[in-house]
Q: What sequence folds into this?
């Protein structure tokens, strides 16, 4: 796979967020369907000048979760299990991802009795709920809540984890939760409905 599809795939995954894998909706057929839609999005972005009519591609929750389950592992940073997503509607997304926090928690521990990182280690599920805002080729994810096994997590801790796991050579500080970002592949906006999202180019 060339660099551009990898960047697009990772970008779409980040845009749509981490969430809960729904048992019974994950199949190789749906994973293949999502991969074909990613290819369509990539090809459409390469058309110059962009067609005036644009393109609308519907992505279902099952397709996205299936792609994460069967095709995403080699694109994910070490310590991150394949994430998945529940698409609630009206822009809202919710769910969880399992992270292996042992190495990061050891690095962050201060040794103090009140240090929250002293309580963390090993593989833990992190749940996140938020709203995806997109318009005119730009996006922003508004985190509303997060928890670890039902225990609320402050936004500052979530930000530390997002920064750590999203680091790249080009972005050594990782991603900031509140920062707006450019949508990949000439995507104009994403309509987040119930159980599905529509990518508009």
A:
């Amino acid at each position: 796979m060339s660099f551009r599809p990898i960047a697009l795939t990772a970008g779409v995954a980040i845009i749509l967020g981490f969430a809960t894998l729904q048992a019974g909706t994950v199949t190789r057929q749906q994973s293949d369907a999502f991969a074909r839609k990613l290819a369509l999005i990539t090809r459409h972005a390469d058309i110059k000048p962009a067609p005036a009519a644009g393109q609308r591609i519907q992505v279902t929750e099952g397709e996205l979760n299936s792609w994460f389950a069967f095709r995403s592992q080699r694109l994910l940073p070490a310590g991150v299990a394949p994430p998945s997503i529940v698409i609630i509607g009206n822009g809202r997304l919710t769910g969880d991802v399992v992270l292996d926090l042992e190495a990061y928690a050891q690095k962050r521990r201060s040794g103090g009795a009140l240090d929250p990182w002293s309580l963390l280690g090993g593989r833990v599920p992190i749940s996140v709920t938020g709203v995806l805002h997109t318009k005119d080729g730009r996006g922003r994810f508004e985190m509303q809540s997060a928890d670890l096994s039902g225990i609320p997590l402050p936004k500052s801790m979530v930000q530390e984890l997002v920064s750590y796991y999203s680091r790249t050579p080009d972005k050594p500080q990782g991603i900031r939760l509140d920062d707006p970002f450019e949508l990949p592949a000439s995507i104009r906006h994403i309509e987040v409905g119930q159980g599905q999202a529509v990518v508009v180019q």
The radius of gyration is 17 Å. The chain is about 30% helix and 25% strand. Strands lie at 56-60, 86-89, 92-100, 123-135, 138-148, 151-152, 181-182, 189-192, 196-200.
